[in-house]
Here is the input.
Amino acid sequence: MTIVTRFAPSPTGFLHLGAARTALFNWLYARHHGGRFLLRIEDTDRKRSTTQALDAILDGLRWLGLEWDGDWVSQFARRPRHAEAAERLLAEDKAFRCYCTPGELAEMREKALQAGRTRLYDGRCRERHGAEAPSGTAPAIRFKAPLDGESVIDDLVQGEVTVANEKLDDMVLLRGDGTPTYMLAVVVDDHDMEITHVIRGDDHLTNAFRQYQLYLALGWEAPAFAHIPLIHGADGAKLSKRHGALGVESYRDDGCLPEALANYLLRLGWSHGDDEVIDLQQATAWFDLDAVGRSAGRFDAAKLENLNGHYLRAADDRRLVDLVMPRLADELAGQLAEQHAITVEARLEQGMAGLKERAKNIVELSENAMFYARKRPLPLADKALALLDSEARRHLAGLRPGLDAAVDWKADALEKLLRRFSDEERVKLGKIAQPLRAALTGAAASPGIFEIMEVLGKEETLGRLDDAIQGA
Ligand code: GLU
Here is the structure.
């Protein structure tokens, strides 16, 4: 059997973390088993569905590396097929037309709630025949849900779960205006798309029983279900915006790498021994549903940040340059004109190994890289300014001729030169290196100073030095 999974978001908002994790689990399960991962956009709610939300979902999935197979499917476009299934159930007496007015339904609901019944609809149209139908109302089509017995689902994460059928309502399949409900559309689509495994948040578990009954009525084999626990915030409540949980694009904007977020989401609810760092390739080899936990994972921003730092240090330098350049260009509006941009890019590529050791995300990396991009004279941070007192400037002025005469402009050679100078002057190396750092970077902390000199080159180094000596 070929495994076929799907991710079925409604395009009514961004791709939030819980949804992204659902997509990830479906993707991994399909990839691990050599199957297919499909994308269905549940866009039947025309008022709330937006193209921005759709784009955010597609971009978010691509960014995370969760490519789907084939074209994505629009649920809305399939509504004739949904209607056809409802009509068939009607013809087979497994569904009925309901003429109840909103007023009647509200009254029924009230009564049921008072009596403590979960079945809200009282079944009054079940046996009402066409001839008795009130004219002028467009009837809905409701499912004749079983009145007794139980529905049992052997959930791949939750185990065997049972519900008494008396709790299942005669749910609406097709509304009076001919539009399908989620419950009908999802079953018809999953069947037609030949989905073998439905993996989704456990907030859908109660829907699964209703969907299961629909499969039976339609004479179709139900897929296997796996309902994964939701993600909670640090306070134990369901993760929401209140916890600062946003769409995946805001994590990207905040400097998160996609592989770090994917790894983090994977570990929220799935484990492989004590392994923490698991990339998608490794996860594909290991992933299966039996290691999905039954309790909700708690979102921990610090853990995500640590993972991000790990992946950042492991990332290819050239890729990081491409991620940093647009941020620098934004920050230094207008200063990164063509020729200078080429210089800056070359510096970043050379200096990236040192820079990436010191950052936890792309925002920090970009801030730390800014000194390679700024034009002279550099703005000096307060701490840098404090390092450049008159004594320090004297040292720098003393150092300048030696640097000017240097032939070998490499980090090793420059280090030797500086050490020799500090010996001769009888001042500690730090007394020279720190002001030098302040002069060359405008800050009191940076990657290694000799490496920076090499990357900046002689001319730029001497220029920045002069600015500092002259107090520019
Ligand atoms: N469209 C539903 C949602 O976004 C998902 C339905 C499903 O996975 O069955 O929650």
Remarks:
- The pocket of glutamic acid is lined by residues 8-10, 42, 186, 200, 204 (CB under 6 Å).
- The domain at 76-228 is CATH 3.40.50.620 (Rossmann fold).
